[in-house]
Automatic annotation (TrEMBL):
<protein>
    <recommendedName>
        <fullName>Parvulin-like PPIase</fullName>
        <ecNumber>5.2.1.8</ecNumber>
    </recommendedName>
</protein>
<comment type="similarity">
    <text>Belongs to the PpiC/parvulin rotamase family.</text>
</comment>
<dbReference type="InterPro" id="IPR050245">
    <property type="entry name" value="PrsA_foldase"/>
</dbReference>
<dbReference type="InterPro" id="IPR046357">
    <property type="entry name" value="PPIase_dom_sf"/>
</dbReference>
<feature type="domain" description="PpiC">
    <location>
        <begin position="152"/>
        <end position="242"/>
    </location>
</feature>
<feature type="signal peptide">
    <location>
        <begin position="1"/>
        <end position="27"/>
    </location>
</feature>
<dbReference type="InterPro" id="IPR000297">
    <property type="entry name" value="PPIase_PpiC"/>
</dbReference>
<dbReference type="GO" id="GO:0003755">
    <property type="term" value="F:peptidyl-prolyl cis-trans isomerase activity"/>
</dbReference>
<keyword id="KW-0697">Rotamase</keyword>
<keyword id="KW-0732">Signal</keyword>
<dbReference type="InterPro" id="IPR027304">
    <property type="entry name" value="Trigger_fact/SurA_dom_sf"/>
</dbReference>
<dbReference type="InterPro" id="IPR023058">
    <property type="entry name" value="PPIase_PpiC_CS"/>
</dbReference>
<keyword id="KW-0413">Isomerase</keyword>
<dbReference type="Pfam" id="PF13616">
    <property type="entry name" value="Rotamase_3"/>
</dbReference>
Length: 294
């Protein structure tokens, strides 16, 4: 089991039920964040005016962070221009809606209350989760997870892929007779991905290869060459170069995933604690209390 898979498994094992709004907030924690600006930006700087009403850099930052307004693959300058245009339209539309008394309806009040509650929750979860991501907590989680990851064997192998068993037998005879395996692979192999590298597949774990190939490769010791092996891709002759225990990725490589785990766990713990301390009643269609799952 890989280090990152172990982290995901540990998160699922928490078993804390999250309400829908909290789930949305969690999704946002793993979303890409806009790149930091090269220089500090004054949030009060006015970037546009609509009928005398200012639009500032702070307003633009809010729009930029809105998941509904993400613009992947759009150049930053063009994205900024589009979002400022959106904010201008937003101000104009909001003023027109106020004049039409849209904000005086019960439906608007309910939507406004929902949006306020959701924004408050998202901000609160984000604020509290950041407190959990400390260098000490990240290092401790990494060390504990690394200890729990079982050693996984890898092999580095070369292969020659041909179409028929007869071709494979001839190739095996040549390399077992002393010819250089890489040279024969470059000459005969039909695998475009490894042919130019002398059939070198690099290091791989057993689960990354189709079963007949993997079974044969992991039975060999370094330096040994297999008899022809049939898979869905054709016939293989395999030579194992090295065997090793798969190294655990370094703390630096895993830091982003560790931080994300700490944030999400803190959010789950927070919501779970709020539920535990609250009196929650749910009603069925007839107005009767529904028994709550513990």
């Amino acid at each position: 089991m890989s280090f990152s898979l172990q982290l995901r498994k540990s998160l699922l094992a928490l078993g804390v039920a999250l309400p829908f709004a909290a789930g949305a907030a969690l999704a946002q924690t793993s979303a890409p964040t806009p790149p930091a600006a090269a220089t500090a930006v004054n949030p009060d700087k006015v970037i546009a005016r609509v009928n005398g009403t200012n639009i500032t850099e702070a307003d633009l930052a809010v729009a930029t962070a809105d998941p509904a307004l993400q613009l992947p693959n759009v150049p930053e300058a063009q994205k900024r221009d589009m979002l400022i245009g959106y904010l201008i339209d937003l101000k104009l539309g909001a003023k027109a809606a106020e004049a039409a008394k849209v904000g005086d309806t019960p439906d608007f009040a309910r939507k406004l209350a929902y949006t306020r509650d959701k924004t408050l929750l998202d901000q609160y979860l984000d604020q509290e989760a950041k407190k959990a991501v400390t260098p000490e907590a990240a290092r401790k989680l990494y060390d504990e997870t690394a200890k729990s990851v079982p050693a996984e064997q890898e092999v580095r192998a070369r292969h020659i892929l041909v179409e028929s068993e007869e071709e494979a037998k001839k190739a095996a005879a040549r390399v077992k007779g002393g010819e250089d395996f890489a040279k024969v692979a470059a000459e005969l192999s039909k695998d475009p991905g490894s042919k130019t590298d002398g059939g070198d597949l690099g290091f791989f774990t057993k689960d990354r290869m189709v079963e007949p190939f993997a079974e044969a490769a992991f039975k060999l010791e370094p330096g040994q060459i297999s008899d022809p092996v049939k898979s869905q891709f054709g016939w293989h002759v395999i030579k194992v170069e090295e065997k090793r225990s798969k190294p655990v990725p370094s703390f630096e490589e895993m830091k982003d995933q560790v931080d994300t785990y700490l944030e999400r766990k803190a959010q789950q713990d927070l919501i779970g604690g709020l539920r535990q301390s609250a009196k929650i009643e749910r009603l069925d269609d007839k107005g009767n209390l529904v028994e709550q799952k513990k």
